[in-house]
Design a protein that fits this description.
Blueprint: E1 4-9, E2 13-17, E3 21-25, H1 29-41, E4 44-48, H2 58-71, E5 88-94, H3 102-108, E6 117-124, H4 132-139, E7 144-145, E8 149-152, H5 160-170
Parallel strand pairs: 1-4, 1-5, 5-6, 6-7, 6-8
Antiparallel strand pairs: 2-3
The protein binds flavin mononucleotide.
Flavin mononucleotide (FMN) is lined by residues 10-11, 15, 25, 28-31, 62, 65, 94-98, 123-127, 130, 153.
């Protein structure tokens, strides 16, 4: 049986809900999706957390994230999960500026992907993966990148069945 890891990044705190409403989340949307996936297929769950804290004010935070991408900054993580014992790795992240957050980039490029299958999943305000899969191919040489699952952030909490079904077929 495949040895599965589920690795995700998710922002806690202020986020934008439909209608440009700012809401405060105790658990991010991608974190909720990652937990549904683990319930569905088992495996080990790893959260990527930055040492730094992003600006609390959401409207300022989104420009902080944009600057990281533009300048190629890889924010340091509290820990870097060792994926050497896994052959199937779900990688989950929110869509930030049409791609993946830089903390995820910083993690991906440190791993040895040869012979591993990546199953990406994203939560977004509507853009789905954007160009993140294209970018992922650059940062994960040697990986086989499977078709991913894209979920609307604000609907994740009510999409357990859909996410469960997707995760189960994704590991086949
Ligand atoms: C910095 C930043 C940039 C974002 N850029 C996009 C975007 O380009 N397209 C989109 O559909 N959603 C975008 N969003 C919305 C998030 O992808 C969405 O709210 C996601 O579900 C958040 O997941 P999380 O709660 O796990 O962090 C952005 C959010 C942030 C914080």
């Amino acid at each position: 049986m495949a040895k599965i890891a589920i690795v995700y990044y998710s922002l806690k705190g202020e986020t934008i809900a439909p209608g440009m409403k700012i809401v405060n989340l105790e658990k991010g949307h991608t974190a909720a999706a990652a937990e549904f996936i683990q319930e569905a297929v088992g495996g080990d769950l790893y959260e990527l957390e930055t040492v730094k804290t992003y600006t609390k004010d959401h409207m300022k935070m989104i420009y902080e994230a944009k600057e990281e991408w533009e300048k190629g900054i890889r924010p340091e993580l509290k820990s870097y999960p060792d994926l050497s014992g896994y052959d199937t790795v779900f990688i989950g992240f929110p869509n930030w500026w049409n791609t993946m957050p830089m903390p995820v980039v910083g993690f991906l490029e440190r791993c040895d992907w040869k012979g591993k299958k990546i199953i990406p999943f994203v939560t977004s305000g509507g853009s789905g993966f954007g160009k993140s899969i294209e970018d992922m191919k650059k940062y994960c040489p040697g990986a086989q990148i499977a078709d991913g699952g894209a979920f609307l952030g604000h609907e994740v909490e009510n999409s357990k069945q859909q996410i469960t079904e997707w995760a189960k077929q994704a590991i086949q």
